[in-house]
Amino acid sequence: KVGAEAAKKIAAMLKKNNTVTTIDLIVIDVIQCSRITNVAGNEIGDEGAKAIAAMLEENNTITNINLVCKL
Q1: Closest residue by Cα to residue 36 from 51, 28, 46, 23
Q2: Which residue has the higher pLDDT, 43 or 51?
Q3: What DSSP designation does 11 have?
């Protein structure tokens, strides 16, 4: 599972990214679908989500983020 600290590190790496264009965060569990910061069974939390949002302000390569809830 990815926690808040790992999400922050991933976001920091993606700030300078010029290759990755799509991020897929897929949730399959109905309970997890109700918690956006518990994406795909990971506990990125509020701080991890904020780090990802800040990364997106600087990254101009990522064009798709798929937040899918498959029930």
Answers
A1: 46
A2: 51
A3: H
Burial class (CB in 10 A: 0-12, 13-18, 19+), 62: middle
Give whole-number Cα distances, 6 to 31, 54, 56, in Å: 23, 15, 16
As a whole number of angstroms, the distance between CA 11 and CA 40 comes to 17
The predicted-structure confidence for 32-48, as pLDDT tens digits, reads as follows 555 555 555 566 778 88
The 8-class DSSP code of residue 71 comes to -
Residue pair 42/52 in contact (Cβ under 8 Å)? The answer is no
Q: How far apart are CA 30 and CA 2, in angstroms?
A: 19
13-30: b (≥16 Cβ within 10 Å) or e: ebeeeeeeeebebebeee
> Token pair of 21, please?
């264009």
